[in-house]
Specification:
181 residues; mainly alpha; Rna Polymerase Sigma Factor, Chain: A; Arc Repressor Mutant, subunit A; 2 domains; globular
Length: 181
């Protein structure tokens, strides 16, 4: 095998191995079209930076970190365009975007939990999503967010407490078996 084909094969393996996980990650945070755009950009970054992509189990958290930053950039761009449209039209746009997680989870209780979660700080939401939905170990969450494992542990405890308070506020008691009001 020549040197020029090796990066291509490594990228192919990376893409085939992690494409679905990165897409699922993005779909839980963005509309379908934005999620696909974010996945494409994430793997474009991986292609350009193949030498920086860690091997083995460390590749997926690295890709999640790229996707996290890509989605953040996309959301900021959307907010800027929205504010500009409001400023140009002289009025506020009346219909807020559909909550992105609503597209994935439809049950009433799950939606109540998601509504409570939207009242958390974005950093708390992302931390809970990475640890609970993506089921990443704390070391990998730390790499995705660019913070220490100790900071992840501290922030996780605080985020869970804040989420518990929000759940109680909407009538779900997380300490009771099965929740409910």
């Amino acid at each position: 095998m020549s040197e020029s084909t090796e990066p291509h094969l490594s990228f192919e393996r990376l893409y085939e191995t992690h494409r679905r996980a990165v897409l699922a990650y993005c779909l839980r945070r963005a509309s379908r079209s934005d999620a696909h755009d974010a996945v494409a950009e994430t793997f474009a970054v991986a292609w350009r930076r193949m030498d920086d992509v860690p091997a083995g189990d460390e590749a997926l958290p690295w890709l999640y970190a790229v996707a996290y930053r890509t989605l953040g950039n996309m959301h900021r761009s959307t907010r800027r365009r929205r504010k500009l449209a409001e400023k140009v039209s002289g009025t506020e746009l009346t219909s807020p975007p559909i909550p992105l997680d609503t597209q994935v989870i439809r049950s009433a209780e799950a939606q109540t939990v998601l509504d409570a979660m939207t009242r958390l700080k974005p950093s708390d939401r992302e931390l809970l999503r990475l640890t609970i939905w993506e089921e990443l170990p704390r070391e990998q969450v730390a790499k995705v967010l660019g913070i220490s494992r100790e900071a992840v542990n501290q922030r996780f405890v605080r985020a869970v407490k804040r989420m518990g308070k929000e759940l109680v506020r909407v009538g779900i008691n997380p300490s009771e078996e099965g929740g409910g009001a």
